[in-house]
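[INFO] parsing input record for Telomere length regulation protein TEL2 homolog
[DEBUG] input buffer:
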Amino acid sequence: METRVRAAAREIINGLRNAEDTQNIIKWLEAAKFLTRKHGQKDENLPSVLGQYSDVPSLQLQTTFQQQHFGKLCTTILDLLSVEWIQKLPGNLFSAHVGVLFLEGSGADALLALDHAVQSHRQGFKLHKTTALLELFITKGRLQQVLWDQCQMSRSDGGQCCQALMAGHTGLWEELVLTLSSLPTRMANCLGRENSDVFLPQNYVPRLARSILECLRRAHDLLTDSKDCSLEFVSRLVGKLCFTGYSDLLLDVLVPVLCTSVTKDYVWCRVCERVVTGVPSLSMESVIVPLLSRIPWYKWVDKFLGDCVIHNQKVRFLLCTKLLFHRYFSQVALLQNLIGYLASSHTRRHLYTEAFCKLLQVWGDASSLRHVSAEQHLFLCQALIISISHIGEQEKQHWKDELIKLLLPGVQSHLGSTDVAVRSRGMLVAQLLTKTVDPTGHKIEFEIPRTPEIEDLEKLMVLPSDPGLETVHQAVADLKVTDEQESLEKEMPQEPGNDAEELDSDDDLAPFDMSFDKKVSKVKAPKYIRDCMEGLLNSQEVDRFEASLGAAEALIRSKPDGITEISAELSKILLHTTETCGVPDFLSQRYRSMVALAVHCPKEVAQYLTLQFYERNYNIRQRLDILEVLSAAAQELSQPEKPEAKTSDHSAKAPSKIQSHSTHPETWRQVVQRRIDSKTRRFGKGRTQPEPVGTANRFGDVAGEFFYPLMRFYDKGERFFDLLGDDAMVLHRLIYTLAIILHNAVNTTAARQMGKVLLEFTWSLRMHRDVKVRQAVVVATSIILLVLPAHFLLTDLQVDVMETKAWLEGVVEKEVNEECKKLAAQGLALLETLIAKEMQNAVTEN
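[DEBUG] output buffer:
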């Protein structure tokens, strides 16, 4: 019988190709329409051109033709499309005879034929007509039939179950999946600006998603009736769409409907599980990641994934390793769903425990903490806090000691970090874990700064509740109503209380303005610098100590006699003064006094402070104070000195001058002239202010005293102070201070040598393990490029500059910290600009 059907198909195709008039074309199209009718439609009257095939049953003739020869018919008709051929069809017979063939025949063959024709035709009539047929094919809902044909299971007469379209399934599915997933891109490449809205991704993918939903509904009905159905093709299509970048458009349509369906019966859960877990391995991550980000509640995840994480090694590696340790995401919902999925079932609980312990190990590893990016570290902290919220009583009893043992090294590493955000996250994780694991034992308490990030992390300790199946629109409406009610309650007046309480209240009395009140001290402020020093040494008398500290800056800036001789001793007193008396604004007053002393006696104070920087019996705060005072004093010394005395003289003489002129009344000519001058706009009137007077840079002579002693013993590791070891916090601040001192010494004779020495100093610190130190080195390098002349960099330091350029390029490419990469990119751009400008100047001179 297949031979007879093949002969009929060949006769129809040859008849269409050789037909020259309208009557013959319509005759052969009618024959083709008869053979492409849906299965089960019977027509006793065969077309006259097919009369010789009356011995073949119509149903078998139609079925065999559609399965084996319909694609060839579609290709033939699309090849015949031309202006001359279309003109032979009267009126609107093109849609009635040609369009209906693509709508009633095999959807897969029609789609593939239309797609191949669009790709092969160039701009012209054929492309226009083929595009119109493809647009009609999509808008009439034929995509749904294409999907369902691949999912159907047919039962042969002998009772044996066989899959429809068994021959060539693998090749057909690959071609269909590729066509359906890449159709928007292909049409955009072929049509360009003339592309139809039907083929735009934002319109096409949701339409395809609705077709997938309808296909899943029909599959659900078949499975409910205990009939066979295959969802492998749908899984392949979903995986390919997500892999090609359409996951957002696809899952935004699928997930809300499927979340509603999986709560109805178990069959829907099986359908969703088969679709999600049946995607190819290459597309598994592209499907699961956006799916976890969109599922509203973590207890619904197993309705999509089931227990596939147990027996599917690919899914287990993805969920338990790759998504937790190799990637990071900004969506907290993904982490909540992932960890909640592992912890919400006793069959998967052991995977949750293993992942929790591994998270603690990675989080507490000192080497990992130094090389991980800020975003990855935040992601790890979020994962740990969510894991802590899922700890049960069994884990508290059996894993308490193990978890605390894994926690303690991480706490030490985080507390030693130079990044404030990293320290805060580490303290919060340690505090929450100890409080949860051992609520009755000793708790770790830290003073954690309250930031929006810390508040968001604390909220993760609350497990998400069931959001229900309400629509998004209803939730938004309820939110608006709640906001309006709250605003109305705020506007409503409070109910009156007890009359006696109102009579005793003082709320109706106007308060006194006490903003300008000052504290009256029983001790007078010292007027001499030595009296001030004695008051600072006597910290037991609180009032005298407070008065001396408050007057110290003003006394130093008044430049009293003998300040130079006692400057080192006064610096020692201020440096060792501690806040034991509860003096308000103590740190600020002490800091300003030390800066004022370093400005007026720079050489003596700098020698003392730089010598004490590496001495023993100083804490980290005091060493940081030394660096801050030196950098602030360098900035102030590099600025021009304010002429305070001259300003006071002018202001004193001004009133007498005005008074002398006021005794003589102005004449009418002077009044008129003054009004004319005030309303006349003149250009090129000349300088209105005196020229600035150049002054010597006060910092130039003492820059070396601030700079070189700070680098004396940086590589000398001591038990009490190790810059290259545990005291990286001081090291990165030291590099910043040296860079600030160099920047303030710009245009001085010592700047070149200082820049060269600083470049050598930072060379060995470029690969430091602490990210803050690496950032400081990049900033210092940029300041060196700004301060040193370009010709000096490219002549005397040519080799160093080229190595620096290669290093900056490496930082931009390989550094894990985003801020460090950004700073390196800025420094690299500055260096390239200097090189280009210097080369241009050399060419101009030649």
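[INFO] Residues 818-845 form the longest helix (28 residues).
[INFO] shutting down worker
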